[in-house]
Amino acid sequence: MKPIFARGISNQFRLTLAIILSVILIVANNRLDPVRKSVSSVLSPLQYVANVPGALLDWSAESLATRNMLSKQNKELLRQQLLMSERLQRFEHLRQENDRLRALLGSPVHMDSKKVVAEVMEVASDPYHQYVVLNHGAISGVFVGQPVVDAQGVVGQVVEVNELTSRVLLISDATHGIPVRVTRNDVRLVVKGTGVLDELELSYVSKSTDIRVGDLLVSSGLGKRFPEGYPVARVMSVVKDDGQSYASVTAQPLAALDRIRYLLLIWPDGSLPDEQDESLSEDELLNIENTSGSIKQTSEVSR
Question: Mind listing the pLDDT tens digit for each residue in 199-240?
């Protein structure tokens, strides 16, 4: 008797086909990178479209702010401005003293690097990596390996650049490492991510190394990837187990990696396309000055 329903493809054939396709994808994985980059560039406008509702909500919230709220915010900003002005006067004295000491030691002067304010458009949904997507790409002069900081310290580095967006790998990612030094005694170490946003680890720290809880870690400049002197983390625990060859040292990032929104893209060599300078608005220039000032103040105090 002829069956009413025709028999479909067997499970064995489906399994074999799936295995063959999996092997082909694994072998051709490296060759698919140009395709992925092209697809990512094509989909970049969709990220801007997806960001429109959030921008509209922010605009609505700002528009609905009451006069009383704006008055309170204005008074608080004036108070903070006075406090910052007083601190700036003291930091200017420290900067001049630091310049004199560097002149005596024959140390080169650190030139101010170019910076551009970028906004976080997307946070990674990949459970194996921690990154964010910024609203600046190749058109703005962003390049792979570019350091990224916020007002508190180092955030990460650019690992992928498209025409309109770029992807930043956070320092907390398990594959990220950054050379640092202890400001207290200039001991040089390497900080690696653990996959946890608020925890970093120091690799291969000898038990005889002079490192303590509370020590400030800043970028050492080795590797020529991150400029020297930017705050990175603070040591939270030091455990020296007799059964282990090295001490177990953990640190906490100074940057608030779980709530970042605006970041600074840094050109360490000071090279920035002329057209990018012309495209910056007055608000962005103000944000650059305020944010970079906060970073300089933190780094100068750490020295």
Answer: 999 988 998 899 999 999 999 988 888 888 889 999 999 998
Q: Is the pLDDT of residue 275 over 50?
A: no
Counted domains in the chain: 1
User: Which tokens in the block code for residue 121?
Assistant: 């458009």
Task: Provide the 3-class DSSP secondary structure of residue 248.
Answer: strand
- 25 domain residue, yes or no: no
- We report the CATH number of the domain holding residue 298 as 2.40.10.340
Residue 75 resides in a domain: no
Instruction: Give 169's strand partners.
Output: 131, 157
- At 140, give phi and psi (nearest 5°): -85, 0
Of the candidates 99, 101, 115, 181, the residue with the CA atom closest to the CA atom of residue 148: 115
Q: Is residue 38 part of a domain?
A: no
Q: What pLDDT does 115 receive?
A: 82
The Cα 3–Cα 47 span in angstroms is 51
Average pLDDT along the chain: 79
Q: Per the domain annotation, does 108 fall within a domain?
A: no
Residue-range definition of the domain harbouring residue 186: 113-303
With the C-alpha atoms ordered 204, 210, 214, 216, is the resulting torsion angle positive or negative? negative
